[in-house]
Amino acid sequence: MLMPGGPRITFAVMPQAPVRRAWETHPQGIIPRVLTQAEVAVSGMHPLLERRVAHLAGRIAAKFALVHHLRTHGHPLEARDIGITQRMAGPEEGRPVAQLPAGVPSCDLSITHSHGLAVAAATGRGRIGIDLERASPRSSALIEEAFTQVEQDWLSRCELLHDRTSDERWNLGWCIKEALVKCTGHGLRASLQHVTFSGWTDQGAVSVPLPALTDEAGALARCITLHTPRTSSAPLTGLLALGRGYAFAALHDLSEDGAT
Ligand SMILES: CC(C)(COP(=O)(O)OP(=O)(O)OC[C@H]1O[C@@H](n2cnc3c(N)ncnc32)[C@H](O)[C@@H]1OP(=O)(O)O)[C@@H](O)C(=O)NCCC(=O)NCCS
Questions:
Q1: How many whole angstroms separate alpha carbon 192 and alpha carbon 201?
Q2: Beta partners for residue 12, in sequence order
Q3: Contact between residue 171 and residue 135 where contact means Cβ atoms under 8 Å apart
Q4: pLDDT digits (tens, 9 = 90+) for 74-124
Q5: What residue stretches are annotated with the 4'-phosphopantetheinyl transferase domain (predicted)?
Q6: Is 55 touching ligand 1 by the criterion CB < 6 Å?
Q7: What does pTM read for this prediction?
Q8: CB 112 less than 6 A from any atom of ligand 1
Q9: CB neighbours of 132 closer than 8 A, spacing ≥ 6?
Q10: Pairing between strand 83-86 and 9-15?
Q11: Domains detected in the chain
Q12: What's the gap in Å between 74 CA and the centre of ligand 1?
C-alpha cells in the first residue's frame, strides 16, 4: 500500500497454525523453503514451542513481505536469497535487519506476532514499525501506566473510535505506542509514558488486504498522520486497523531515510 505522501509499504500476514504443523510434522515443508538453516536454528533456540512458532511465523511473514516488495521494485529474489538477522546489542537490540544481496537497495522491516498471527512490513525508504494486539481487556492500572492524560483523552474522545469497543480503543493505542518505539528505536527501554503522541490527522479509509484482520465487514483501516512531540520536519504516517478481534498499527518515519 502507499502511505499518504509516502513510498510503498508491503505487508504480509502469516497465520501461526500452519507454521506449527510444519514444525511438528512436515520438516521438509514451508520452513526450509523460505528460511535459511541459520534462521531456523535461531528460532529453534526458543525453549517454548509457542515462542518458537511465533518467531518462525514472523520470519516467514518478513520473507514474504521482502520478496514481494523487492519484486515490485524490479528485484526478483527468492526467499532464501534474503537473510533476516537482528541487532544484537545497543538501544535497538532485537530490531530485525534484512540482509540483501549486493546491488539490491536496502529495506527496513518490522515484525509483530500475537494470538495465532504474525505480520511483517517492508519498505525501501525510511523506517517502519508495526504492532499487532488481540483486542482483549486492559486494566485501568495498565492504562494509567501506559498512557499520558493527553493520550487517554484523545483515545476516549476520538470520533473515529466512537463506535468501537473500549478494548479495541485501548489496544489500538497500545499498538501505536509499540509501533512508535519499534519505528524510531527510541525509548524502547524507557517509561511507556515517554513515548508519546497527542492524536492524529485522519487521512481517510484505505483498502488494505490484511487477511485475518481487515477482511470482515465493519473492519476499520485508516491512513493517519500521527502527531508526536518530535521536532523533525517529516511527518510520521501510518495505518490503523481494527478487525477480527485484533488491533494493528503501522508507523512509517521518513525523517531517517537511508539511515537503516
Ligand atoms: C520490542 C517490543 C516493543 C516488542 O513488542 P511485543 O508486543 O512484545 O512483541 P511483538 O510481537 O509485537 O514484536 C516482537 C518483534 O519486535 C521486533 N523487535 C524486537 N526488538 C526490537 C527493537 N528494538 N526495535 C524494533 N523491533 C524490535 C522483533 O522482530 C520481535 O520479533 P522476534 O523476536 O520474533 O524477532 C517490546 O518487546 C519492548 O521492548 N517493549 C519495551 C516496552 C515498551 O516501551 N512498550 C511500549 C508499550 S505501550
A1: 22
A2: 120
A3: yes
A4: 999 999 999 999 998 887 888 999 999 999 999 999 999 999 999 999 999
A5: 127-203
A6: yes
A7: 0.94
A8: yes
A9: 112, 113, 114, 117, 118, 119, 175, 213, 246, 247, 248
A10: unpaired
A11: 9-126 (3.90.470.20), 131-253 (no CATH)
A12: 31
